[in-house]
Amino acid sequence: MHFNSFALCLGLAGLAQAHMEMISPAPFKSKDNPHAGSDVDYSMTAPLEASGGNFPCKGYHSLFGTAQGASVADWDAGSQQTMKITGGANHGGGSCQASLSFDKGKSWQVIHSYIGNCPAAGTSSFDFKVPSDAPSGEAIFAWSWFNQIGNREMYMNCAAVTIKGGSKRASAMSNRPAMFVANVGNGCTTEESSDLEFPDPGPDVSNDSQKTAGPKGTCAKAGSGGGSGSGDGDGAAPSAAPSAPADNGNNGGNNGAAPSAPAGGNDGSYNPGNDGGSGAAPSTPAAPPAPTKPASDTPDVYVPPSSSATDSGPNSQTSSPGGVFVTAPQPAESTAAPSAPSAPADDGAGSSTLLTMTKPAPAAPTSVVTPEPAPSAPTPPAAPSAPDTGAGAGAGGSGTEEKAGSACTEEGQWNCIGGSKYQRCASGAWSVVQSMAAGTTCSGSKTQAMAFGFGRKLAFRFRRA
């Protein structure tokens, strides 16, 4: 029995891996940001919420202009710069964009698009040129990513930067397209197993893809992103006024006038002046293919900004199937019953990795969540009973939501709220409330181990002894 329990621990640890995150320039609330202090987001690799509730920047763009959101890099207009992405689960790569916002995150202009192999497994660098007509002053730089394999998601990290020697013209960067937005409840989705072909990638593009596909639904059309960096609205406007994802409390008005949007939805771009989109929700993609064998090493990969057509075949990089991704610190050897390892006592280390568990492929496609009209939510299958954690875990979480940033005493403690949301005690303070991934639930409240149910499997969070 002892051997079986230990083998299960090793199996779970072997599946653990991290998603991807930008580390340079250092994003808001990143552990690499010297201005973050103790308010660090240890789930920086998590995607944006499917509802779009924390778009853009996971809501952290609200720190812009504060001491915690101070600039981390000085860039000259017209200069060559590099962003660095790292992590262990690049989900087949995909397509990324580098964008700038000069109005505190209300609108975004693309400065470089990367189609295919973005990001690569391990640590990779991506070059781009700061537009020579970029306005001088502080701005928000964003890395956005649409993964090739796995759940249809959008990832986004943002950092404060300072542009020097730039343009003072009202039409600065008016020929740049708006950042592409999808998979956040705005009526636009991306296809699985293909690299996203951006409808309007802009003038600076790197293409390293073997297979591309355009987005589905009511998405952005080719055309200038418009709007001036100074926020006076004199730049060229998009071809249609996009609808925003669900209102997250940070929405504002547009800087420049735009034509009325066509009936039935939005164009895939983010518009803070519109509170929701409409149109029928498209079906989700088919189940992903089996993953390739992980590489034994994940070396740094350098990706130049120019297009390359010399590759003879697909990238032999680590890929992961679609599934539910939850954080799980690597457990120590357990003496619990063989059905599941017990949670060891907390030693304050708090180190964790990311556990990727594959849920069974659905028998038929389901609908993605859109703000309007609201489809009927499918009833998730009953999750197996979670092991006794000693904290009263049941069929659903009974924890009470704690105010983000309020003090807590049990470092690493989890708080399951209503079975659909959770937060954690980190660095002596409660984190922001996070939504569970689609089709999963949590159980228990304010405990050191929390069970997640999906399909007929359970994933467990543990504190390492």
UniProtKB/TrEMBL annotation:
Residues 223-234 have a biased composition (Gly residues). Residues 1-18 form the signal peptide. Keywords: Signal. Residues 189-406 are annotated as: Disordered. Residues 305-321 have a biased composition (Polar residues). It comes from the Eukaryota. Residues 235-249, 327-352, 360-371 have a biased composition (Low complexity). This is Spore coat protein SP96. The lineage of its organism: Eukaryota, Fungi, Dikarya, Ascomycota, Pezizomycotina.
